[in-house]
Design goal:
Helix content of chain C: 25-40%
Largest sheet of chain A: 2 strands, antiparallel
Strand order of the largest sheet of chain A: 1-4
Number of helices of chain A: 2
Chains: A mainly beta, B alpha/beta, C alpha/beta
Number of strands of chain A: 4
Distance between the termini of chain A: 8 Å
Shape of chain C: globular
Helix content of chain A: 10-25%
Distance between the termini of chain C: 51 Å
Radius of gyration of chain C: 18 Å
Number of helices of chain C: 10
Strand content of chain C: 15-25%
Oligomer: heterotrimer
Strand order of the largest sheet of chain C: 3-2-4-5-9-8-10-11
Largest interface: A-C, 34 and 39 residues
Shape of chain A: elongated
Largest sheet of chain C: 8 strands, mixed
Number of strands of chain C: 11
Radius of gyration of chain A: 13 Å
Structural class of chain C: alpha/beta
């Protein structure tokens, strides 16, 4: 039986830590990282990937196209 | 149309542009060049070309900018105050190395002035009225025939050097009617324009820009432009000489002033004065070298202009101390009279005639 | 892990990735700036309609003058405010290419107001993308024609005073008084729903141009966090609560007819 899961990938070097994605995620998938990227921004990280429902709020909202969103196909045992 | 026609100068420019393959014309009404705009309004659509009466002279020069980035030939025309409005656009065209033709049918100024002829935009045309280190190629016709011929050549030069070209004429030439032999040949061949914006199909995108925030990059750009202007200087200087072979007094004038000066030269010769005329055809590049040569052979030089003395300064720069220089000029739309030019030539010819203008 | 365009696993379905018409290059825009979003929406439009190779953009003075670094199509600069005139020249000479302009408040509604109105009035078959962020961004946050009453900017430090500084200009409504425009719409980057509407609006406009329908203008209310003096999240809220009441969203002109 196939179940849908989603993969959110954030390019930490493009992220400017604007937090707009975090503000529109309905499932607390994302949070701001404690680390900083080479440009000095606290970038967004995927904290709870399994919560993602693939709504694409984050990827639509991101001004820097730092977010790539995919629907994965996995098998359950 | 028959090959030899009677036409006014403004129309002759229009017909020249059409025959040169001008694809787009954008203009705005202003006297004394309205005939040209109206001519283009009538005939460009008939030839399947583009005509727009723009909302302003500023809009018109920027429509030219848009047209020429596509690789097509384009032209705009105006008169003194409208040309002032176009200066930013001219700087942008020169900076991006875009070919374009701009016609200035000069009128009395400064300010709103009047609609009589003038040559007081010489500084604006040749020293840049726009900002930055750039030059327009400036051509100065003095007959309806030349208005026509120089226009065709202007498109060729603009393409050859990737530079805007200005035809600097005046209200008198624009409105006068003379017989004209129309150009019969094909439009001057257009060079390939791989830089033009035609859509990035099978190639990397092209950008037309003059913004270079990096200082080294902008200086490099300027050096390239300066090298081009040097080339133009070496290749393009144009002038006409009349009875200069044995001349002892030399008139220097362009456009309408040159026709008056020529008449005065003839009258002077009739009185036994060895007068001659040098008529610059390219105001930029200016025929400095030839003027310097002639200055060494003559008793005196008379510059004739419809201005307070603008080309006069380029003559002074070229001549230096080699010869006394006198000036016969009128302003505000007034036209020098042949009799006044003759008197000045006679004065120069006298053994003690100084006449040097400080 | 940094991924720009990582290879999908066999059964993955891409829901969203950077459009091809967007150059793979980090932008210089401030965090939360709406230009990044507007650029990506235009790039998506070029991808979806498959018109990248025949599109020419005009990018004038303003934060968006760098559009040629980010949009992967032919682009021309334009002098400040002259953008619709340049676009007119390009389109009239190449009517089968797609021509769009990308303009901010100053370019479109201040120095370029005449060009804006007259290109619309001639019904030029171009698409004007108007990014309204209520300030002049590039030059340091000065007052714009679209600055709200009472809004503090670098040149209205006590707040825009309508007695001496005018009041916000509504471009969509202004152009809607003309007969010639084909499509006029105002959208806002005030959240995912707004962004999706903006995406649809751009598709409508560009598709209309492809079909020779005429002049389209899409006004996009956009955040400028730095000069709005707000965080990106607050800037989005400012669009919702401050800008939209002053600049109502919606379609003003559809299929060439005013929408009542």
């Amino acid at each position: 039986m196939k179940a849908k899961t989603y993969s959110v990938r954030i390019d930490r070097n493009r992220c400017k830590g604007c937090e707009l994605c975090i503000s529109v995620c309905p499932r607390q998938v994302l949070e701001l990282s404690e680390d900083i990227n080479p440009r000095g921004y606290h970038f967004t990280r995927v904290a709870n990937p399994s919560n993602c429902i693939g709504c694409s709020n984050c990827s639509d909202m991101c001004p820097d196209t730092a977010i790539e969103l995919r629907e994965e196909m996995t098998r359950h045992a | 149309m028959r090959n030899r026609v009677l036409m006014n100068g403004n129309d002759a420019i229009g017909e020249g542009a059409i025959r040169a393959g001008c694809h787009a014309y954008f203009g705005y009404p202003i006297t004394p060049q309205n005939e040209l705009t109206a001519y283009m309004a009538k005939y460009m659509p008939e030839h399947g070309r583009v005509f727009i009466q723009a909302e302003s002279e500023v809009a018109a020069i920027n429509m030219v900018f848009g047209a020429v980035v596509t690789g097509k030939r384009a032209m705009t025309s105006s008169s003194s105050p409208g040309i002032s409005l176009k200066q930013e656009g001219l700087s942008y065209l020169a900076a991006a190395e875009l070919p374009a033709v701009i016609v200035n049918v000069q009128r009395g100024g400064p300010g709103l002035g009047n609609i009589a002829p003038s040559q007081a935009d010489y500084f604006q045309a040749t020293k840049g009225g726009g900002h930055g280190d750039y030059h327009l190629i400036v051509l100065a016709p003095n007959s309806v025939q030349e208005m026509h011929d120089f226009t065709i050549n202007a498109f060729a030069l603009a393409d050859r050097y990737r530079n805007p070209v200005m035809i600097l004429t005046d209200g008198r030439l624009g409105q006068m009617m003379e017989p004209l032999v129309l150009y019969k040949g094909p439009p001057p061949k257009s060079p390939p324009k791989p830089w033009s914006l035609t859509g990035a199909r099978n190639r990397k995108p092209n950008h037309i820009r003059s913004l270079l925030l990096d200082v080294d990059a902008l200086e490099e750009r300027n050096l390239i432009l300066q090298a081009k202007y040097k080339t133009i200087l070496n290749e393009l200087v144009g002038f006409d000489e009349y009875l200069t072979q044995d001349a002892q007094v030399l008139a220097i004038a362009y456009g309408s002033s040159a026709r008056i000066a020529k008449g005065a030269v003839d009258q002077a010769r009739a009185k036994g004065i060895k007068a001659g005329l040098l008529r610059p055809i390219t105001l930029w590049p200016f025929p400095r070298a030839r003027i310097r040569q002639l200055a060494a052979k003559v008793k005196g030089i008379l510059v004739v202009e419809m201005s307070a003395g603008q080309m006069l300064e380029d003559v002074q720069l070229a001549v230096g101390e080699r010869s006394p220089i006198a000036f016969e000029g009128r302003m505000g739309g007034a036209v020098p009279e042949a009799s006044a030019v003759l008197t000045a030539l006679q004065h120069l010819n006298k053994p003690t005639g100084k006449g040097a203008r400080s | 892990m940094s991924t720009s365009r990582s290879r999908p696993k066999k059964a993955d379905r891409i829901i969203y990735r950077r459009p091809l018409s967007l150059v793979d290059r980090p932008t210089h825009f401030c965090p939360g700036c709406g230009h990044g979003t507007a650029h990506k929406l235009i790039a998506e439009t070029l991808d979806i309609l498959k018109i990248r190779e025949k599109t020419i953009g005009v990018a004038p003075v303003g934060c968006a003058v760098m559009a040629y670094h980010y949009l992967n199509c032919d682009i021309s600069e334009a002098a400040h405010g002259r953008t619709p005139a340049v676009a007119t020249g390009i389109k009239r000479c190449q009517p089968d290419r797609i021509v769009f302009s990308y303009q901010g408040d100053g370019d479109l509604a201040a120095i370029g107001m005449a060009e804006t109105i007259h290109a619309a009035n001639r019904g030029e078959n171009i698409t004007v993308v108007f990014v309204n962020n209520s300030v002049y961004g590039m030059t340091g946050g000065q007052m714009a024609p679209t600055t709200l009453n009472g809004q503090k900017t670098a040149t209205s430090p006590c707040g825009r005073d309508s007695r001496s500084m005018g009041t916000p200009i509504r471009i969509c409504e202004l152009l809607n008084t003309l007969e010639s425009p084909w499509h006029i719409e105002r959208v806002a980057l005030d959240g995912p729903a707004g962004i999706r509407k903006a995406r649809k609006a751009l598709l409508t406009a560009f598709k209309g141009q492809m079909e020779g329908k005429g002049y389209s203008l899409i006004e996009i209310l956009s955040p400028c966090p730095v000069h709005m003096r707000l965080t990106p999240r607050e800037a989005v809220r400012f669009i919702k609560e401050g800008m939209i009441p002053a600049f109502p969203l919606g379609v003003f002109r559809k299929e060439g007819k005013p929408v009542t």
